[in-house]
Write a structure and sequence with these properties.
Elements lengths: L6 E5 L3 E5 L10 H7 L4 E5 L15 H15 L4 E6 L1 H12 L4 E7 L11 H8 L9 H8 L6 H8 L2 E4 L2 E4 L3 H6 L1 H4 L13 E6 L10 H7 L3 E6 L6 H4 L1 H13 L7
Parallel strand pairs: 2-3, 2-4, 4-5, 5-8, 8-9
Antiparallel strand pairs: 1-3, 6-7
Length: 261
């Protein structure tokens, strides 16, 4: 059953829905949402089992796409622009391919419509072995996660999911469901499409999430796609080069010549 997703709304103008990546929430794209809200009504959605959205034992891309479409219905949005990063990008592509009449323009950030090899085993091990009920402080949690994750920025990103309650700490996300459904999260459904509307694929120059050989599959599913490389960035170009990222997205969304005749 489709879930109604928690949605943060801000700004004024044509609708733009923004979807975050794995372990994230709408707040991870908060800088871009605030910038884009100058020209658009931006709806930052938390995908199922993340942020403030409902938890469920099951998640794959058709299910997450159904959540987005159900939430659009609840919000009274017949059509919208759609931007997604990583897992959110796969969800956005699935929405566009299964319900193309609902999407005006599509922005996909650093992910391709394909299955990936497992790449989060250390993160999942670090999070699943953390005894959150016994935690005394966030620094204690950071010390534990550091055994698996050396990069401070990634640890800080992951530990945003820790919330303090009266009885102590707990995970805001549904970690057991993410672990259980991880094979589906790194997969991609066998969709034929195509989505013929304007699409923009943004790739971090130092990221390997989109390879040259992915171009054929992207062009088959999204024949009106363009691609842009953001120098000096990895898998999070929206936070690593926010001004460049914003200009590329803003110019693409505002370009009436990109609209299909």
């Amino acid at each position: 059953m489709a879930l109604e997703l928690y949605t943060h709304r801000t700004g004024d103008g044509p609708p733009l829905v923004v979807l975050h990546g794995l372990f994230g929430s709408w707040e991870n794209l908060g800088t871009q949402i605030r910038s884009l809200a100058k020209d658009y009504t931006v709806y930052g959605m938390d995908l199922r089992n993340h942020g403030r959205s409902p938890h469920d034992d099951f998640m794959d891309y058709p299910t997450m796409a159904a959540d987005v479409l159900h939430t659009l219905d609840t919000l009274g949005l017949e059509r919208t622009h759609l931007l997604g990063h990583s897992m959110g990008g796969k969800t956005a592509m699935t929405v566009a391919l299964t319900a193309p009449e609902r999407i005006d323009k599509l922005v996909v950030v650093d992910v391709a419509p394909k299955a990936y090899e497992p790449g989060h085993n250390e993160i999942l091990e670090a999070m699943s072995t953390l005894d959150v009920a016994a935690l005394k402080s966030r620094s204690e949690a950071d010390a534990h996660v550091k055994k698996w994750v050396e990069t401070h920025a990634i640890r800080a990103f992951l530990l945003k999911n820790l919330v303090r309650e009266d009885q102590g700490f707990s995970w805001k996300l549904n970690l057991p469901a993410i672990i259980k459904n991880y094979p589906a999260i790194i997969d991609f459904p066998p969709l034929e499409g195509p989505f013929t509307g304007p699409a923009l694929f943004l790739k971090g120059a130092h990221s390997d999430y989109i390879q040259a050989h992915d171009r054929e599959r992207i062009n088959t599913l999204f024949p009106n796609a363009t691609a842009k490389l953001i120098d000096g960035t990895g898998h999070w170009p929206h936070s690593e080069k926010p001004a460049v990222f914003y200009k590329l997205v803003s110019d693409f969304l505002a370009d009436t010549q990109a609209d299909p005749a």
